[in-house]
Amino acid sequence: xxxxxxxxxxxxxxxxxxxxxxxxxxxxxxxxxxxxxxxxxxxxxxxxxxxxxxxxxxxxxxxxxxxxxxxxxxxxxxxxxxxxxxxxxxxxxxxxxxxxxxxxxxxxxxxxxxxxxxxxxxxxxxxxxxxxxxxxxxxxxxxxxxxxxxxxxxxxxxxxxxxxxxxxxxxxxxxxxxxxxxxxxxxxxxxxxxxxxxxxxxxxxxxxxxxxxxxxxxxxxxxxxxxxxxxxxxxxxxxxxxxxxxxxxxxxxxxxxxxxxxxxxxxxxxxxxxxxxxxxxxxxxxxxxxxxxxxxxxxxxxxxxxxxxxxxxxxxxxxxxxxxxxxx
Length: 328
Fold this sequence. Notes:
Shape: rod-shaped
Low-confidence stretches: 19-34
Order of helices and strands: HHHEHEEEEEEEEEEEEEEHEEEEEEE
Number of helices: 5
Number of strands: 22
Helix content: 25-40%
Structural class: alpha+beta
């Protein structure tokens, strides 16, 4: 009787031990999958991007930075901005991709457009005897080329960056959304965005088309208007240093009055690394009285006339200078 009770106790103990072993194995497998698995490595990398922790993200991704690139997008607020544009992120299950390698697909949207990035990881050993160690397959970060017309700086994901001779190259993490623009009082370029989605992506480009702002156009227009109004105040047939005039063989027999009926439309354009004012045209009207030298008849005349000229533009920290150029 004691023997059968002992057997039952041993059986219960063995069953408990087996259940404990099974539970331990299940726990190890769960931890190995959820904590040490490739899926978690991808999650950690994406979280580092969201936090703007570029050094940690670079280490996790096991990536190198391309030579001769600017690192402005690889850390801090610029990196956080890049990650904020990546929405609706779904990390897929690891899929076998060769010996000791898996591929993890990440699906997401950028500006409501669907994208996907495939991350490759490889098993490089174990930790604490039981847990697999997964690392991203070594890679090089993709590169972004940015240009801006006639400027030496721009704003990239909210961070001011230098643009020597209007160009620069930037290393970027992925997935990411990069926005570039240029804004100043007198010149601006609308924001341009690009989605960086792949480590093998060819150099993407953002080309900022800088143009004169309304503030600059208005300032130039005001100076040209003053110039033309001063010309119109001259009560002679040939106003000095002005783009219009009148010739006649008859004798003047009344006052001479010029009036600008159409001021030029100002267009400021880039040219050869500088800013130029496109040729200017408008109309003016002359009112006077003329006397015929043979008949002596005096006749009031109104003469509409088109005029044209050019002007040089200088924009400095001290202000805006417009210099009319009148050819005779």
